[in-house]
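Page 47, continued from p. 46.
Same chain as before, 82 aa.
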Amino acid sequence: MVSENEAKIMEIIAEVFEVQQDQVTKDKNFVDDFNAKSIKIIEMCATLEDEFDIEIDMEDARKNSTVGDAIDYTLGLIAASK
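Result:
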């Protein structure tokens, strides 16, 4: 079972990368599976920042190669901001 925040992160990823929500699983790689370009990564980060009122470091964000990495990173920022 996924948390409310995790579900919202996955929903945002599906919207930004224009894929069905059931395609967004933790093992998916942004570049290999979603053909991610830099602009889409920036859009995803900006949307996550707005949704959760957090600040994402772009250098750190580039290290997140999978959906699971991005979820863990974002959840960590959410927890640290409280």
